[in-house]
Structure formats: structure tokens, C-alpha cells
Amino acid sequence: MTRTLALGCMGMSGMYGDSDENESIATIHAALDRGITLLDTGDFYGQGHNELLIGRALRDRRGKAQLSVKFGAQRAPGGAFIGVDARPASVKNFLAYSLTRLGVDYVDIYRPARLDPTVPIEDTIGAIAELVKAGYVRKIGLSEVGPETIRRANAVHPIVDLQIEYSLISRGPEEKIFPVLEELGIGVTAYGVLSRGLLTGAKPTAPNDFRAHLPRFTGENRERNQQLIDVLQRLAADKGVRPAQLAIAWVLAKGERIIPVIGARKRSQLEESLGALAIQLSPEEVARIEQALPASQVAGTRYQAQQMAHLDSEH
After folding, report:
1. Domain of 118, in residue numbers
2. pLDDT for 225-243, tens place per residue?
3. Number of domains composing the chain
4. Is the CB of residue 275 less than 8 Å from the CB of residue 252?
5. Which residues form the NADP-dependent oxidoreductase domain (predicted)?
6. What residues are labeled active site?
């Protein structure tokens, strides 16, 4: 199976601070030119900005890209997240706007960003299945849901992949979720493979960088996590590669059905990430990396407590 990456476009629309639109578009073009075909977005990234950006980038390249779109997260004009809506009528309404912003007739993968606790997953997936039948969606995905929800969704319509956070220091899905995916033949698009830049030592500097509110990046947690960052830097130096490349290579080594989603906002970041494709880790090296970087040692949860409580994948 060909080793590949996907390009996550969230960071191009303000989530990590301001970004350069021209550089973002150039990065998307460079990714396509280098063989990355899957672009991941959400209709709530920048309140529609991200889809408009991708639409401009793909104006003359639609046939080169596969589009994975998340929906359901609701935002207020000021940017605050105010809930999840995955009712059948809302599903179809959200897609109508996404198709217009993206400038396309269909999306390749459509998925609820989070489980709506007020709507049975069967109803949400059933609505997307109707969109598949009508030709507006090619395949159905899921995001951040647990084993029971995966089984219930797949019973309504085949699920192509689960998008979930997975990295050296976020290995929770291995215990209960990945075995179910393996059983059902469902792939993984793994986001947060660098733990939003934490593993490479990144620190939030802009006031609109949402990482400034994440437990792993703040206070004593950040100081404690520096030890893990230092270990990864040493391991990478020993192998003659960059820390980001080693972290991505580890995800690639964990299974042929796992595709890392890299959040490059610049061509330089993209180029560095692509270097991971040339790194082949033996089972012994994988084990050694995991032993040196035990996930149990990370300080802080991946989201704030309120958000963690709403994650079906954590239940």
C-alpha cells in the first residue's frame, strides 16, 4: 500500500493565529503537486473562510483533489463554539452551503464533526446516505466517536474512515477504537499527529491561537511536557531526521490503514512533513520510541474539560 499523507487546512483559517492566504493557496498547490490528494476541512473553520479558500485554490484543479468536509459544529459571529447540530435537515442544509463555497458539485467524504447527543447517529448517517444516493457525497466518514457509535453508523451505511486525534502522546484509540475499525474494515485519518505542534516545541503566541487555551500548552503542564519534547528531539537527532518527521513516521508505521493529516500552513512546513514518507521504522524502533515517550507521561488533556466531556470517543 502506498504511504501517503493528507493536508489538514484548519490552520489556514485563523485557528492558530493569522495566516497568509496566498501562502496557504501555494501550500495547497504544492501538496497536490507532490501527490497529496486528500484535503481536510470543516464548514466551521473560519466560519466558512476555509472552504472559500480551498475553492479558490482548486478553481482549476478540482480533478486533482479529494475533499473531506466536517459539519455540525455551530459558531457565533464572534467565533465562539455554541453547540452541535446533526439533524437530518441541517445535514442537507450545511452541505448545500459547503458545495457553493467550495465551488464543487459533490464532496468526496462528508462527516459530522462531533456526535450530536440529541440526534441518533442513525438519523444523521441516514441523511448523508440520501446525499450519497443523490450524488452530492461520495463516501461517509465519522469524527471523534467511540466503538458503539461506529458500529451503529456502519450498520446504516458503510463508513470509509474515522477521523480522530492520534499521536505519540495521544494513543487512546489503540485500546478500544482501532480494533473495531480493523474488524469493520474502516480506515483512519489521524489528526493532531504533532499534537498541534507541541511535539516540535511550538508555543501559541497570537491572541487568537486556540492552543493558548489547551491544557497541554499552558502553565505547569507545558513545562512538564518539555521533557517529552526533549526526548523526541534526541531520538530524531540520533536518526538524522527532524522531530516532526519522526513523529509522523511513527504514525505511518502504526498501520497501513492510517493516514496522517498534517496541518501545514506554509510550503516549508509541508516539505518537512513530506520527509517523513522516506523514513521506514522497524518494529523494534517503533517499540523503542514508544518506550522513550510513554503517552501516560503527557501532562494535560487534549482539550479543555468541557470539550472532553462531549467527546464520544472518550466515553
Report:
1. 6-314
2. 899 999 999 999 999 999 9
3. 1
4. no
5. 5-292
6. 45
